[in-house]
Amino acid sequence: MSWEFAALAILAAALISGFAWYERTHPGSRMIALVATLGGLAAIGRIAFAPIPNVKPTTDIIFIAGFALGGAPGFVVGAVAALSSNLLFGQGPWTPWQMVAWGLCGCFGALVGRLTGRKIGRVWLALACGLAGLGFGAIMDGSIWVTYAGGQGVSQYVAIAATSFPFNVAHAAGNVVFALAFGPALLRAVMRYRTRLDVKWTDAAPPAPAAAALAVALVIGCSALLPDSADAAGAPLKAARYLASAQNSDGGWGVARGSRSSAAQTSWAVVGLAAAGYDPLSVKSRGRSPRGLLLSYAARSRATADIERTTLALAAAGISTRSGGLRTRLLRSQRADGSFAGLVNLTSYGLLALRAAGVGASGAAVRRAATWIKRRQNRDGGFNYARRGGPSSIDDTAGAVQALAAAGQRGGSPVRRAANYLAARQNSDGGFALQAGGSSNSQSAALAAQALVAAGRNPDRQRRRGARSPLSYIRAMQRSTGAVRYSRSSSATPVWVTSQALAALAKRALPVRTVRR
């Protein structure tokens, strides 16, 4: 077997493994769009700076993609950038080498992101991008050594590396300059979008009270709220049974029945079952409960959204939130101004996670978070996920209402104004849309219903534009299996939608509990 053939076989295996790795993460449409956009941006960066040999922002963009999104997306961004840009520069035996080399730059970015908790300064980011450029150059030197050197001795590689050294240094220096100039801004933009993607999953399933044996510091009283139909009482039970039937053999849950378990889906299935009054740890598949996975997620959670979601799930399952150092990382995630990552949605769920981790409503961390949230309320009473003055959304407003209620401010003006904003934007079918005027979906309807409960209102009596309530809309989306469809136009029944719908059907707001073990 020749060196060239062996190298190509290894490269092919690496590329197949990288793309398979990405596919196994089950990326959603928004993640696919983001990866494609970053891949295109990296390719354009290479083309735009083609007149300057080896000086281009491509490696920086790929590194930042891996840093913000993770190894699998980072690898794909690098590989796609190389393949697509070579449509202009020309395909050849160098293409798979470039695809793998830039893919590994994305993986290197993910490694640095994991080691730093995705927090890095401008200078360190620039230095890391420069190091990625040198690594890319070393791999491409290897491609010449294997393909064209006529011999694979060490001396040949050293000679090739010495010849290309000025070009590799120029590449690394260009990376440093580009990273210093635009790196932090691009990283913030990608991180914000990544956070928005995460929250779309985490907001989707607010936790609810677990078994009665667990201590609950705050439960929004709504036992007297009566359903508006005789079938209403069976809807939560059907949803809970569906979640139990969708459990995987490792004790966790995936996006859909039979799909691979993930941290987000397992966490929200746990709190959904808790909302129906089940002990989540008593729900087992082949003798395995979700406990082991939850403890694993607690030890591995580093991103703010992951830390918050896992904290809520552990509390719902009655597991100490100190497990794996989770509570400590949660406290460290809060900024000096009281926010979490400077975003309304993450600060809302961060406040709820603080309460679940045992921080009292009068605690300094909770008070600072609540104050920060209130200052971001829009004039219409709603909240935007990122800033004051941005378009208000149902999901972000619902999260803020529940957070402020958990901070002991249920009767305050901000909560009343936000609840009025929600009530005024109900659609005629009883549901709610992410943005006012859009089509209803089960996620937004469930979050709005929970927020109304947190504000002391009966969601069954919320019927602004017709005879249907948000809970009626959710029940209409429920299939005979108990699973809940995302919307009338979508037949998909993701686990997280059923989980959040279950919490709403049980008429529970996000719980606040203190678990002591």
From TrEMBL:
Residues 237-277 form the Prenyltransferase alpha-alpha toroid domain. GO terms for molecular function: catalytic activity. Residues 330-432 form the Squalene cyclase C-terminal domain. The chain crosses the membrane at residues 30-49, 61-83, 95-112, 124-148, 168-187, 208-226. InterPro entries: Prenyltrans, SQ_cyclase_C, Terpenoid_cyclase/PrenylTrfase. Keywords: Membrane, Repeat, Transmembrane, Transmembrane helix. Pfam families: Prenyltrans, SQHop_cyclase_C. CDD domains: ISOPREN_C2_like (cd00688). Coiled coil: none annotated. This is Unannotated protein. It comes from freshwater metagenome.
